[in-house]
Fold these 4 entries.
Entry 1:
Amino acid sequence: MIRWKHLVPRGFATPRLDLGPGLAPVLACVLAGALAATLAAPLGSAQEKAPATECWRGWGYLLDGQTGGYKSQEMLLVTIGAPVWEVGRPVELFLLDRASGLISEMPSFTILPENPRQYFRGRLNYMDTTAAIEGSGDRIVVGLSHIEPAKPGVPAKERYNRWACGFPEE
């Protein structure tokens, strides 16, 4: 504890602020409100900075690495987030469960796009490519649509995005 008396030279008069009987409670309320706003600000900021749900969702077929023939039925696939679709740049894909629409418990896998074709309708909204599968001699062909993040204040779009990207309801 600091003893302020020893820091003030003798004979030095410290000014006193006379708040009067009615101003002190008002000042206390203002200070309490400012403190509450300061403590609540980081919580509100963290909620505002939470990223909106975004993904690429679509279909895929496994291809035989030697012949290029189809080796699977249609698979429902999704990315988490927004990968960059460039030749050789790794992209992680997740299988969607057909019954629930949620991300499957099957392990994800990584592809290396070979010839991504991107389609625009005012903005990038569809991509298809053949790709190598990391750790496998087989290949894959995929076609995915971009699920854009919801604008702030549009909860119905965010709920749709969570469903489209394979996440459970909150």
Entry 2:
Amino acid sequence: MIIQTSTASFLIQTCQDQKDCITIHSNSEIDLARYFGSLEINKSENHTLPFHVKSCKQEFSDALILMVKEIDYFDFSSVVSVLG
């Protein structure tokens, strides 16, 4: 799954080594720290999304709630008109 905010892009994938874990890759270390502050942020060789964290699904759902709360609904109609 790909999530894009006004300040960062996130790629969410299942962990290869842990069944109940997901990996969140991002181009923004700052946004990863803001949404997943209690988790260790790692740097990878990927130049497009060089930062990642491993998270349980509950922590990820909490971060999604924060992302939704930050939507600027004042400008939301102009974004929807561009997409539609």
Entry 3:
Amino acid sequence: MTFIEQPLLVTTVGDDRTIVLPDSIPSGATIGIVVLSDRPKRKLTRKERFKAALTEIEAAIIRSQQEPIDLPADAEFNALIERARKEPHAHRS
């Protein structure tokens, strides 16, 4: 049997345990399935968590440059700060 290299497809198993594939995959095609875990096999170190957060922040900055978002007016921003100050915090006793 000869295998021809194909592009990698990533999908999620549905609640009914089906896998949806694009129409470019013909019926009866032989496919391989690899289960990818969303859970890390170990806890991330503080440095790894920081690096992951920094990566997300950088991605958000790039997205905001491509699709700018409306910023709240000063009054709205001040109201959000006041509301946050009034809400209970878990670390306070």
Entry 4:
Amino acid sequence: MKTKKFLTAGLLLGGLLSFSACNSGPNRLSRNWDEYVNQKYSQDSWIHGALLQDILPVYPIVGFAMGIGDILAVNPYYFWTKDVQDRKGTSYTYEQPGNDKTVSGWGGEDHVEEMMEE
């Protein structure tokens, strides 16, 4: 009985540690999904923004599943097979959605420049 509890505790601990083992990496699945959502949002903000992101949380649920896939499969592969050997990370290349309205950066660049000048 003691051995069974010890084994169960070890498996539980190992399973929990595996979720944090390779969170670093290119996050290809979740970034690809984010790029898809961004493209769809630029085409129709009501359906792909308000409806599928906020009212019916389809996009966040799929994004969460993609993040789990990144942590369990994609990131460990790229980290251990590509990035560790040369100590350079694998980056993800974004494509522009092809809309006239765009925003870049995180919105605080002017504030940072003002702080740097002071």
